[in-house]
Amino acid sequence: MNRITQLDPAQTTLIVTGHGTALNPNSAMAIRNQVNLIAAANSGYAAVLDAFMEEPPFIADWHLLAPTPQVIVVPFFISDGLHSYQDIPVLLGIENHSGPAASQREIFRHNPHNVRGKNLYYSSSIGTERLLADVILDQVMDFDRIHKHH
């Protein structure tokens, strides 16, 4: 059984993280929107937060942002790559340096990570979820239904 499913949400902080950049104010908007939706859905988490690589709140401060002993960090990317495999683990304190290529890593299989006084669960990017394809297909079918030519 996956250890992450055994967590008590009331003792857990969910952090959705992404790039963020001062160059584009909309860069973080999709993440903030998702965090707001999750929080509004009464998911049971003690806190649902956003954090970013290059703008505040910074993911490197995750341990200060999270009020609970259990923390789940989910990268908000369409696929796993340089950021989720190498950059973010260093910012979280899981890794000391960016390390080898993504194809040689098993960073997501070693949960929990006992780091900075908390139990950190690090997931693969949201876009790697198999059900994402169903979401896309549902969007296509909705579009076709709305815009169907008679």
Shape: globular
Side by side, the strands of the main sheet go 2-1-3-5-4
- Which CATH-level-2 architecture? 3-Layer(aba) Sandwich
The domain count comes to 1
Helix content: 25-40%
Order of helices and strands: EHEHEHEEH
Characterize the structure shown.
The chain has a 5-stranded mixed sheet, sandwiched between helices. The relative contact order is 0.16. The longest helix is centred in the last third of the chain and has 15 residues, at 132-146. It contains 4 helices and 5 strands. The protein has a single domain, classed as Rossmann fold, CATH 3.40.50. With 150 residues, the chain is α/β, with parallel strands linked by helices. The termini are far apart.
Summarize the structure.
It is built from four helices and five strands; from the N terminus they run βαβαβαββα. With 150 residues, it is an alpha/beta fold. The protein is globular.
Q: Which structural traits does this protein have?
A:
4 helices, 150 residues, Rossmann fold, alpha/beta, globular, five-stranded mixed β-sheet
